[in-house]
Specification:
alpha+beta; 60s Ribosomal Protein L30, Chain: A; six-stranded mixed beta sheet; 32% helix
Length: 151
């Protein structure tokens, strides 16, 4: 039960952080892809930066054409490369991540994901949750979201 409540709690922290920044006059900036409201593209940004904090949305590790890679390792690399690219777009690195959530319908992929995940960090690992989930869009094995703070 607590695991299911965690995303809602994280969302509350993210919303509270955005509201607090608005009250203090900090501006928001957006990381591509930022989709205009009048398109039929999914309505999300590649990330929202408020002050020194970047909120990353759920990211999938699909190949071009929204295909699930053949191997678990390839999909783990794709999703982490997408997170890394979003961070770079905000002038940050993987070492700026402070919190990560990984959603995975098949928790037997835990060890394989971890083996790939370890290679993306040069400092301490961020706080993290690996959450057994229901099905993900496009049949993806992983969806990753996070919060980064510029060091």
């Amino acid at each position: 039960m607590m695991i299911r409540a965690l995303p809602a709690v994280l969302l509350c922290f993210a919303v509270a952080g955005c509201a607090a920044s608005a009250a203090t006059g900090q501006s928001r900036s957006y990381v591509a892809p930022r989709t205009p409201a009048d398109t039929d593209q999914p309505p999300f940004s590649g990330g929202v930066r408020v002050g020194d904090t970047l909120y990353l949305p759920g990211v999938l590790g699909l190949d071009p054409g929204q295909k699930v890679p053949e191997t678990v390792e390839a999909e783990a690399r794709n999703v982490l490369n997408a997170i890394k690219a979003s961070l770079a777009g905000a002038g940050m690195t993987m070492d700026d991540l402070v919190y990560v959530q990984i959603f995975c319908p098949d928790v037997s992929h835990y060890a394989t994901f971890n083996a790939v995940y370890r290679t993306y960090f040069t400092r301490e690992y961020p706080a993290r949750a690996f959450i057994g989930s229901g099905p993900l869009l496009y049949g993806a094995r992983f969806e990753v979201q996070g919060i980064a703070v510029k060091r």
